[in-house]
Amino acid sequence: MKKIILLLVLGATMFACGVPKTVQESRKVIKGYWNLDKITYNQSGNFNVTMFNDTSTECFEGTTWRFIPNNNTGVYSVNDANCPTGDRNFVFTIQEIDPNTGLYDFLLKPTNAKNKSEDDRGFRLQLKQLNANSMQWQQTVTLEGEPFKINMNFSKIEE
Length: 159
Fold this sequence. Notes:
Keywords: Signal. By secondary structure, the protein is α+β, with helices and mostly antiparallel strands.
C-alpha cells in the first residue's frame, strides 16, 4: 500500500512539473519554415540595430527560419547578397509567462561561434503572437535609458 501511495505521489509530482498545454500547442504551431517579413520599432527614426550579435535589421528582413521543436533547435538563413549570407544555428525555448494573456518568454541562443553572445545565455524575447500563419516576437532593450522595443513579424512558409 505504501508503494502505491508513493507511486501516486511521484506521478502527480511529475505531471505537475510537465510542460504546460499552451506551450505544447505553441511548439506544434511554430514547427516548420517561417519568413521574417518586417522589423519595426516602437519609436520613429533611423537606428543602427544589430540583431543577435550577428548583423543589421536590414539583413534580417527576408531571412528564412526553420524551427524543429522536438529537439528545440533551428536555423535561420540570411539571403540578402549585400549581407553576410549563410545559415546560423540556434536553440530555443518557449517558457510560459501568463496563460491568461498568452504572452511567453522566448529564449533564443545562437550556437554558431560567430554570433554567440558574450555571456553565452542567449537572447530573451516575448512571443507576442503566434498562430498557424503568423508570429510576432518583441525584444525590449534600453536606448538612452529608456525601453526600446524591436518587433519582428513572421509569416509561415510551410510546415
